[in-house]
Each structure stands twice: as structure tokens, then as C-alpha cells.
Amino acid sequence: MREVDATIARRLDSGVPLVGEVARYIIASGGKRLRPVLLLLTCGALGCASEQRFNLAAVVEFIHTATLLHDDVVDESTLRRGKATANEVFGNPASVLVGDFLYSRAFQMMVETGSMRVMQILADATNVIAEGEVLQLMNIRDTALDEAAYLRVIRSKTAKLFEASCRLAAVLAGSPAAMEESCAEYGQSLGTAFQIIDDVLDYEGDAAELGKNLGDDLREGKVTLPLIVAMQRGTPEQAALVRHAIESGRTDELPAILRIVQGCGALEQARGVASEQARRAVQALQGFAPNPYTESLLELSAQLLQRRS
């Protein structure tokens, strides 16, 4: 990861000072670096020591950071990772344009691998992520959204880059197609579980630990799994209150919504769906050689379900 961070710092250089300033602001603001970690761990599990793993780990972090910059503008967010968002500090135009810079720099870096397969994976991933963002936008304040439609969004918007990170490791390792698909399955399942837990924490987490405001999803009209389940399991009056809060985007009813979501078992059911996704991730690792990297991938599947931020 030190090598990845050094690569990130080096490739953020630009002749336009504001580009580096905004990009460094959001990249230096913390974050789990989970996608680069996944790529490096999967490379280790497959016995791959290619120098390109550091370059591609930086690429997936740039793509992820670009999506964050754009997301915060679309969502009108003011807080991320406990700090003011880049759009709050630098304004929307700078955030959008620097996000574009990070996308284009990522594509410059992936060309350096000289691999059409690498470029195909990342081009497909960025396209699917963009589709997921648009799909989520279309679903805003749609209280008829069901679990299947919700999962479709998060598999596109969030899990796709997890999947791509693990698939890239298999390509770098020269793994056979079956192993590449196992890596992709691990990444997609882990990414899906990660996003479900993220959505659960919006209704049971601690704002200081999360680094964002509780109830942001509700304010933005995002129909996440805890709300879908609450509308299914709550009383007619409770379901009506949740629907009204989603449709209006008002958070003055947030304490009541929290009581409903926490009291009807919605969070437990959502965590159960996340646990099933984590189980699928573990299953995908069955054909991997036993080594410390594989053990870390297995441990990550379990730890993800316990996270509080």
C-alpha cells in the first residue's frame, strides 16, 4: 500500500494547481483504500508479483475517487469521512471537473499496461458504474422499489469496481478463465455485502464514526434495503410514514423512522442479506491456494459484516 500511495501521489501531478489540490484533498481525507487492497491481496493469493499491480491499484482508487466527487455533487452532500466534502470546499464545478481528470488519468495509466484485457475490464466497469448511478437517480423517491431492483443498483454502482479489482488481479496473474470468474464472484459478492452494510449503518451507526450525517439516504430520497423491509414489515401506519418521508425528503421525522426501522427487524433482515453475500464471497475462494493472502480475503469477508464505519 505504501507503493500504491506513492504511485497515487506521483500521478496526481498536473500543470493545473487546482486539479492536484482538489484530488489530494479527497484522497488524503481517509477512506479504507479497500479496492486497491482487494487487488493486492488477490494478486498475493494467486502468487502474482507483477509491478503493474501497484499501477492498477492506483487506477481503481482514482476511478473510485472520481465517483465520490461526482456523487457528492449529485447528492448535495456536505460531509464525507468526517470532513467537508470537496464540493463544499471547492464548489461543484471544480469537483465535477477534477473527477473527470481522475477518470482520464486512470485511463492513461491503464494504457501503460499494454493489455487490451485490462482496458476492457476497466472500461466495462466504469460504464456499468455510470449506468448504476443513473439507475439510482431514476429510483429516487420511488417507494415501489423492491429488493431485486435495489440489488441491481448496488451491484452496478458499488460492487462492479470491487469485482473489477479482483478480476484484474487474475488477469495480471495469467489465471485461467475459471479462476478469473471466481475472483470476480468474490469481488462482486463482497462489494454487494459492503454496500448493504453501508446502508444499514445509515440507520444505526454513529455519525462521528461514520464520518457522514445519519439520515443522508433518507434526505436524498434513496430507497435502500432497510427502508424497503420496513415498508414490508411495519404496520400500515408505519409504512405510510416511511413512504411519506422518502417521497418528501424531509428528515424531521428521522427519529420516528429510526424507531420503525430498528423496531420491525429491518436492520437484522438487511444484515442477513449481507451475510448471504459474504458467504458467497467465501465460497468463491474455495479453489484458492491456502496462504496468508487467501486467509486475509476470508477474514475480510467476516470483518466487513462487523464494521461500524
UniProtKB/TrEMBL annotation:
Pfam families, per database record: polyprenyl_synt
Co-factor(s): Mg(2+)
GO MF: transferase activity
UniProt cross-references to InterPro entries, sorted A to Z: Isoprenoid_synthase_dom_sf, Polyprenyl_synt, Polyprenyl_synt_CS
This enzyme's EC code(s): 2.5.1.-
Signal sequence coordinates: none
Enzyme kind, highest EC tier: transferase
UniProt KW Ligase keyword: no
Keywords: Magnesium, Metal-binding, Transferase
Homology family: Belongs to the FPP/GGPP synthase family.
The name this protein goes by in its record: Polyprenyl synthetase family protein
